[in-house]
Each structure stands twice: as C-alpha cells, then as structure tokens.
User: Which sequence fits this backbone?
C-alpha cells in the first residue's frame, strides 16, 4: 500500500501545469511627429504611444526610457 501511494504521488508530481508564455512584443518608439521629444516630455510621449497603439494603448513598465540619441521615448513592453 505504501509503495502504491509513493508511486502515485511521484506520478502526480511529474504532471505540471503549463505556465502561459508571454507573447513577444515589439517595443514602441515614439517621436513628436518626426521631431525629437525632450526628456521631460514623458507625458506627451505616453499620449503619442497610446495613440499609436490604438484602443488598448501602450504597456507601461519601469523599463520605459528616453533614447537621448534619437529623441524617442521607448516602451519595451509594446502595445497592450
């Protein structure tokens, strides 16, 4: 009996649930109608990113950043 219970528990441990894998998302890069944003224009950049992404908007995260070389705000999580 103990052996059957051990085998049953071992088999149950082997059966896992599949964790959902997040879909890869392309980062969203926005500029001010082709002109560079300034670093302090984050709120305007967020509005532009939401407009570019459509109804669900852009996914914001702690990794959003300003790209000084291009003047674009980058949202690595992409559109929602």
Assistant:
């Amino acid at each position: 009996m103990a052996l059957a219970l051990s085998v049953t528990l071992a088999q149950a441990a082997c059966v896992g649930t599949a964790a959902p894998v997040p879909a890869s998302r392309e980062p969203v890069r926005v500029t001010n109608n082709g002109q560079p944003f300034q670093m302090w224009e984050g709120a305007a950049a967020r509005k532009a990113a939401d407009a570019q992404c459509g109804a669900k908007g852009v996914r914001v995260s702690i990794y959003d950043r300003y790209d000084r070389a291009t003047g674009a705000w980058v949202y690595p999580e992409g559109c929602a």
Notes: The first helix runs from residue 2 to 14. The beta strands are 28-30, 65-67, 72-75. The chain has two helices and three strands. The two ends are 52 Å apart (CA to CA).
